[in-house]
Fold this protein.
Amino acid sequence: MSSLIRPSIKRNINRVTEKRTCLITGAGRGIGRTVAARLSAAGHRVALTARSADELTGVAGALPGPAFPLPADLTDDAAVSNVFGAVEQRWGPVEILVLAAGTASSAPLTKTTDDDWQQALAVNLTAPFRCLRRAVPAMVEGGWGRAVVIASAAAKRGDAYVSAYTASKHGVLGVVRSTAAELAGSGVTVNAVCPGFVDTAMTRASIENISATTGRTPEQARQALERRQPINRLITTEEVADAVELCLRTPAINGQGINVDGGAVQS
Ligand SMILES: NC(=O)c1ccc[n+]([C@@H]2O[C@H](COP(=O)([O-])OP(=O)(O)OC[C@H]3O[C@@H](n4cnc5c(N)ncnc54)[C@H](OP(=O)(O)O)[C@@H]3O)[C@@H](O)[C@H]2O)c1
């Protein structure tokens, strides 16, 4: 079968096995931290960003390969530019970009404030847009690149009490799909991974919030979130990282939103 593949395509497929320069946002904990560990274990150079310098330093110190912690608030466009500039200066252009920084809040529509709305869009939609816009030219010029956005099952369906979060995640999936179409054939792919409830600090905060607002015990609140996945448990960060790795190694996957939610969303 492989002998039927044109040499240029074969070269493109194999190039993911090279050691790459990676930038991972939201790398201080949760999904971003697990993805950073995977990419470092595979031998790549891994730059890490999030606001909490302490968390980044801890993650960087535990990685087996070259790591570069870059504390930044990604809602600030100048900070985004500085992060990319620092990576380029040390290692050259970003070749693998994984956008895992995110924020979540919950409120009925009528109690969703302008601040809630702006914060969700700034972190979950505008920051990934700016990172993609900054990363893509060098990827195209180099003829190879991978970008993966950690979106959410909320990119594909609407649940109660999360209108701002849902809007931001639907939006970022739109950016992914459009950018992927624009770059098709360039050697650069852009995809999203759409998890259900993942066992991270973000979900633990949701459990506390449900418990506080409904009077359920934390255990009952956790079970309610577990039942949102038909497999009746939370998703692990390793399972999300598996889907990220699939996007990195398979050039035929482009413009997708890959569900990692135990079968809750079937599209
Ligand atoms: N957990 C879930 O159930 C779930 C489900 C579906 C999708 N997702 C998505 O997956 C992504 C990762 O979530 P997670 O569960 O790993 O969350 P998490 O454990 O809370 O981690 C979020 C990361 O984003 C960083 N971050 C937040 N705001 C930032 C900002 N303004 N600038 C830079 N970094 C910022 C955080 O660091 P600092 O606070 O230090 O900045 C942290 O490193 C998010 O986009 C989330 O929406 C999560």
Q: What stands out?
A: The longest strand covers residues 188-195.
